[in-house]
Specification:
By secondary structure, the chain is α+β, with helices and mostly antiparallel strands. The protein has 2 domains: 226 residues, P-loop containing nucleotide triphosphate hydrolases (Rossmann fold); 126 residues, RNA polymerase II/Efflux pump adaptor protein, barrel-sandwich hybrid domain (OB fold (Dihydrolipoamide Acetyltransferase, E2P)), CATH 2.40.50. It contains 8 helices and 20 strands. The strands form 4 sheets. A 6-stranded mixed beta sheet has the order 6-7-8-3-9-10, sandwiched between helices. Strand 9 and strand 10 form a beta hairpin. It starts with a strand and ends with a strand. The structure holds adenosine-5'-triphosphate. Keywords: ATP-binding, Cell membrane, Membrane, Nucleotide-binding, Translocase, Transport. It catalyses: ATP + H2O + polyamine-[polyamine-binding protein]Side 1 = ADP + phosphate + polyamineSide 2 + [polyamine-binding protein]Side 1. It comes from Spongiibacter thalassae.
Length: 360
């Protein structure tokens, strides 16, 4: 439905977008995720028409948007700051774009009522924005964006002004709202947790380029490169060298840990001598005083270096030798103690041979 084709944007010397290509499907909740300055807002503004690419094209249903000014594009943007008019009631705020479009009064009233139902605030029509909570204001801003029935809703960090509890509640509401109304969402955030929770697919951006586009679980479990592994969630990144690459497995010498053999999650065309890294999520690691041997697993012995008590879980940083440390995470399901092991304790750790994901 939305196609970004070879889009580049330069600000002076700085290349903010570099040959960006992506496709968003109709009805999809699609997220642009990346650290500050990676270009996600520039891309969103280019879709909205507030910025113009130097090269490339942006198509909606096969037609280029580039020659259209923002107000002529069938697209609406919701910003982090709600941008509601404080002197107007909620109903007047929502009606504003319809009045601009000179719709008749009964049609305006009908649509305002309908969209207030969509965002589940039908009784707030006569209130002023300052009488609403942050979450309610953002829902009204979304209602105002939806009232014109855009083909595409662009959302630029719309929840970042809300506190953590309210944010989670609004995330659930956004998922349900998008499902109910079926409009395509393109969402911008630097918060990886939010992206994983909300999106059908995520484009991870790094320095103006798309690093990987995938579904949340795929991005988390099978990162395509070190940047994605590191940016999404906690991750152990164990450097190594390819010893031998076969059609069905690869042998890798992990720095300070020795040789391992992997038969899944292997990048294509690895060659002997090439540097690589095993990416391994902390919750995939088993940790105990003693672990029974299991042929499917890789076993190591180490010493607890630090512990971090997080309430629900405790993170154990275990030194496996020669300065190689891994982070393992254990749920604190038993009541009472904050940690099972203390710094200095000798422990055994193990992970399934295919639990990690090899990247270049
Ligand atoms: N109008 C502009 N003039 C010059 N440089 C700009 C302009 N707009 C953005 N940039 C630069 O382009 C890069 C990408 O900016 P952009 O706002 O797209 O990043 P972002 O990923 O949205 O970051 P953030 O999350 O901080 O908003 C940044 O380095 C920024 O400084």
């Amino acid at each position: 439905m939305l196609e970004i084709i070879d889009v580049s944007r330069r600000y002076g010397e700085y290349l903010a977008l570099r040959d960006v290509n992506l496709r968003v499907h109709a009805g999809e909740f699609f997220t642009l995720l990346g650290p500050s300055g990676c270009g996600k807002t520039t891309l969103l503004r280019s879709i909205a028409g507030f910025d113009h690419p130097d090269s490339g094209d942006i198509l909606l249903d096969g037609k280029s948007l580039l020659h259209l000014p923002p107000e002529k594009r069938p697209v609406h943007t919701v910003f982090q700051s709600y941008a509601l008019f404080p002197h107007m009631t909620v109903a007047d705020n929502i009606a504003f774009p319809l009045r601009m479009a000179k719709l008749d009064k009964t049609e305006i009233a009908r649509r305002v009522e309908e969209v207030l139902e969509d965002v589940r605030l039908p009784d707030k029509a006569r209130h002023y924005p300052q009488a609403l909570s942050g979450g309610q204001r953002q829902r009204i801003a979304i209602a105002r964006a939806l009232v014109n029935r855009p083909r595409l809703l662009l959302l630029d960090e719309p929840l970042s002004a809300l506190d953590a509890k309210l944010r989670e509640q609004m995330q659930i509401e956004l998922i349900n709202l998008q499902k109910d109304i079926g409009i395509t969402f393109v969402y911008v955030t630097h918060d990886q947790g939010e992206a994983l929770a909300l999106s059908h697919r995520i484009a991870v951006m790094n320095q103006g380029e798309i690093s990987q586009i995938d579904e949340p679980a795929q991005l988390y479990n099978c990162p395509g490169n070190r940047f994605v592994a590191d940016f999404i969630g906690q991750c152990n990144i164990l450097d190594g060298t390819v010893i031998e690459s076969h059609s069905d497995r690869v042998d890798v010498e992990l720095d300070g840990l020795g040789r391992i053999s992997l038969s899944a999650h292997i990048p294509a065309n690895l060659h002997s001598g090439e540097r690589c890294a095993l990416t391994l999520r902390p919750e995939k690691i088993r940790l105990a005083k003693q672990l029974e041997a299991n042929d499917a697993e890789l076993h190591f012995r180490g010493q607890v270096h630090d512990t971090l008590y997080m309430g629900d879980v405790t993170i154990y940083i275990v030194e496996l030798g020669e300065g190689v440390k891994v982070e393992a995470l254990l749920a604190n399901s038993a009541p009472g103690r904050a940690r099972l092991f203390d710094p200095g304790d000798t422990v055994e750790i193990a992970w399934h041979a295919d639990a990690g994901h090899l990247v270049r």
